[in-house]
Each structure stands twice: as C-alpha cells, then as structure tokens.
Design brief:
Blueprint (H helix, E strand, L loop, with lengths): L17 H11 L11 H13 L7 H8 L3 H13 L3 E8 L2 E8 L4 H41 L1
Antiparallel strand pairs: 1-2
Helix pairs in contact: 1-2, 2-3, 3-4
C-alpha cells in the first residue's frame, strides 16, 4: 500500500483531554499541519475511533456532519488519513443493506499505528536494499575504471 507520512516532533499535551491528544497525534503524523478553528481532523479521528469499536464504517456524509464541514472537505481529510495508512475502505451489513464507508485499519488506534510502523519498516528495508545495491554498483564501476586506467 503506498503511503505518505511525515513524523514531526510535538510536545505531549494535557493527557486528560482526548481532543488535545488526538490533535497531538495528528500533528506528529504530519496529518494536521496547521491550526484549524474547526478541528475537523480531530473530530474525524475521534468519530473513526468511536465507530471502529462497533466495526461500523462511516460514510463521508456522516463524517461531514459530525465534523461540521462540507462533504467535499471530508474527502481531503480522508485522503490524508489514507496516505498515512490509518484508514481503509470497508463495508458492513446494516439493517439488511450493505453500507460502504471508512474504518481505522485495525480495532483501535494503537494497533492501527503498529500496522503503520510495520509498513514503514518494510519499506525502509527495501530502501536499504536499494542503497546497498547502488553502493555496490558504484564500487564495481570504480574498480572497473581503475582497471581500465592501468
């Protein structure tokens, strides 16, 4: 799964406020880059956390209502969450009908973040392998040039 994540250093907030903790996590992940009066990112994360317990996907319209923003704006927030590897599209049967929407990738935020960490570690291993191959190619080329010059 392609993803984009920026880890930022943030100060730990008031540990008694779920809104402040959610905001700090989103800032640390580079999802929330600037101050927002509406705190839509925070509201969306808290909604996703609440409904994840129920295994209940949320539609963008529902997230827009709970965050107090336009549905078109929700898609931008969902894109950032998806790029960070936090959410997935899912479906559930509700009242005999299939409901499609978005859920956190795992049962809770800690497990979701652990999956993101594994994604990063897997990709980092691939980057290291490519770097080793590049270094080896450069070393071989250097030896080849040295032999030609002799």
């Amino acid at each position: 799964m392609p993803f984009r994540i920026t880890i930022r250093e943030v100060e730990a907030p008031n540990m008694e406020s779920k809104e402040e903790l959610a905001e700090a996590i989103l800032k640390a992940l580079g999802i929330m880059r600037k101050e927002s009066k509406s705190k839509a990112d925070v509201k969306i994360l808290l909604e996703l956390l609440e409904y994840r317990k129920l295994d209940f996907p949320l539609k963008p319209e529902e997230l827009a209502m709970s965050a107090g923003i336009k549905r078109s704006q929700v898609y931008e927030h969902l894109r950032k969450y998806s790029e960070a590897g936090l959410i997935k599209k899912d479906a559930a049967i509700v009242g005999g009908k299939i409901k499609k929407g978005y859920l956190l990738r795992d049962k809770n935020l800690v497990k979701t973040l652990e999956k993101v960490k594994l994604d990063i570690e897997r990709q980092w291993s691939e980057i290291l392998k490519m770097a080793e191959n590049l270094q080896e190619l450069i070393r071989r080329e250097k030896i080849r040039r040295a032999m030609i010059q002799k």
